[in-house]
Specification:
about 35% helix; disordered C terminus; about 20% strand; 18 strands; six-stranded parallel sheet; alpha/beta
Length: about 525
């Protein structure tokens, strides 16, 4: 494939709540579901993107994410699945689809999120992606992304094969798509046909009418367990039967079909070959238990709000701050790291970052994330206390905690205008193009900047100094924080070269930082941690 498979469309947060029913509600004759667990996953276009990535393709998802906890959760799940998220802003709330299940059967579906909000404008990076994609899948769930004018213009101009998975409440496909993939109910709603014909005749008439209306190369009507019917320029449709009869959970089967066809076209398959492959994959998907068995285990727990609402900590607090600043046309600034043993260098960095915009959101590594990056003896301070200390600073407007090794998923949700890092890149000693966050920020037109840092401030040095005194940590920690020689103790007795190298590396990767006129030496770690 010359370029990535680009999925464009509306992403929902799907949640399956599992439970048991042993009694009826005392005040109404309805069953009571005692919840035993739940699983979150991306839905809509997000699910199609995850399916495409699972087939080994490089996948980019262009979707709208809201400034709420649901949007943050979606960004985390998609990033963990290997999907590159190019987010658009989304007015309103994240649409959620909640299925209440018992013994593998759905009892009730609960939808929430309100009416669709307007998606934001795509960045230049998104428009370039559509021009260079190997295939494009438009996964329309009727919530507005497929209507976005700039996206539609780019879809009409791309040379890549376009697969359009329509929705009755969505717009018409752009002219010239290679393949449209409605199901039976959708094609009947999009192209009403007279009653009385056979199932295949009705599907064929609807598909041909839709193909002419949209000037599409082909239309494949999915027929559930009976496979699909493909109509193209010829007068005779192609029926692709399912390889085996399958009963089970069909949720996501249409997304699996469309994603498989898109990846096949990206790899050079003919439309008929792509449809045959898609029928086989969708049939196997249902036979193997559907979405519950098709996706990898959950990427992790939902984002945790460490303290009560309104204290500046947690996804909800960050969302409130960001939404208020964006509504006023202001600039959102973010920075991130571990912030273990908060010191003067950290404060200087945060103060300098806050001066660059109208709010500052700190992306804080969770305890699990810090341990994975720095070893089992870190962090010294638990995430709840680290978050409270940061939120208490006047220059910090909100703190959100993330579990991943890098802040990429958090950034895809926050979409800050400016991401701040500490280091000496601004002096010419480093290469700003090498910053790992720079490519992420370009997805929505943001910028990455660096600020100098206070010489000699280092969390690792403070910890080493405290340990070297045998418990007399007060003076040593003060000296370390002030950049005195006591902050850089020699190796303990018996320590080998490997221990010295590890300590030296840890010092290079810690981040200390800025006021004007401060001396600058070496950059912070490339993963954004401190």
């Amino acid at each position: 494939m010359a370029g990535p498979v680009v999925v464009v469309g509306d992403t929902l947060l799907d949640r399956d709540v599992e439970g048991v029913v042993n009694r009826l509600c005392p005040d109404s004759p309805v069953p009571v579901l005692d919840e035993t667990g739940y699983v979150d996953r991306p839905g809509g276009a997000g699910l199609a993107a995850v399916f495409a990535a699972a087939q080994g393709a490089e996948v980019v998802l262009v979707t709208a994410l809201a400034d709420d906890a649901g949007g943050a959760r979606l960004s985390s799940l998609l990033t963990a699945a290997g999907v590159q998220v190019y987010p658009l802003g989304l007015a309103g709330a994240t649409p959620e689809k909640i299925r209440l299940r018992a013994r593998g059967r759905v009892l009730l579906r609960h939808d929430r999120g309100g009416p669709p909000g307007d998606p934001g404008e795509p960045s230049d990076a998104v428009l370039r992606l559509l021009a260079t994609a190997s295939a494009v899948l438009v996964s329309d769930y009727g919530r507005g992304v497929a209507r976005q004018p700039a996206l539609r213009a780019a879809l009409a101009d791309t040379r890549a094969p376009v697969v359009w998975d329509p929705h009755p409440r969505g717009p018409a496909a752009v002219p010239g798509v290679h393949l449209a993939t409605p199901n039976e109910a959708e094609v009947r709603e999009l192209v009403p046909t007279p009653p009385g014909g056979s199932r295949l005749a009705t599907a064929s008439r609807g598909a041909q009418g839709l193909r002419r209306r949209w000037r599409a190369g082909a239309v494949a009507v999915t027929l559930g367990g009976d496979g699909a019917l493909l109509c193209h320029a010829g007068s005779t449709p192609l029926v692709v039967p399912s390889p085996a009869a399958a009963e089970g959970d069909t949720c996501g089967a249409g997304d699996r079909f469309a994603a498989t066809a898109s990846v096949a076209l990206a790899r050079g398959a003919l439309v008929s070959e792509a449809v045959q492959e898609a029928v086989g994959e969708a049939s196997a998907y249902v036979a193997n238990g559907g979405v519950a068995n098709a996706l990898p285990p959950p990427a992790g727990p939902a984002p945790v709000s460490v303290v009560s609402a309104g204290d500046g900590v947690g996804v909800a607090s960050a969302a409130t701050v960001v939404a208020r600043v964006r509504a006023a046309g202001g600039t959102v600034v973010a920075t991130g790291g571990c912030f273990d043993l908060l010191h003067a260098g950290h404060v200087a960095t945060l103060q300098a970052a806050r001066q660059l915009g109208d709010c500052l959101v700190v992306c804080l590594n969770s305890d699990a994330s810090v341990s994975g990056l720095k070893g089992p003896d870190r962090p010294v301070i638990p995430q709840g206390d680290r978050a409270r200390l940061l939120a208490a600073l006047s220059c910090v407007d909100a703190v959100m905690i993330f579990d991943e090794p890098t802040p990429h998923a958090a950034l895809s949700w926050l979409r800050p205008d400016v991401w701040v890092k500490g280091g000496d890149y601004a002096t010419g000693a480093g290469d700003t193009s090498a910053l790992p966050e720079a490519e992420i920020l370009r997805r929505w037109g943001g910028h990455t900047v660096v600020v100098p840092y206070l010489d000699g401030r280092s969390t690792t040095a403070m910890i080493d100094a405290a340990r070297s005194t045998g418990g007399r940590s007060g003076d040593a920690c003060c000296a370390a924080s002030a950049g005195h020689a006591a902050a850089e103790p020699g190796p303990p007795a018996g320590a080998g070269p490997a221990d010295a190298a590890a300590r030296a590396t840890d010092r290079r990767l810690t981040d200390t930082v800025p006021p004007p006129g401060a001396s600058t030496r070496r950059p912070t770690s490339s993963d954004g941690t401190r």
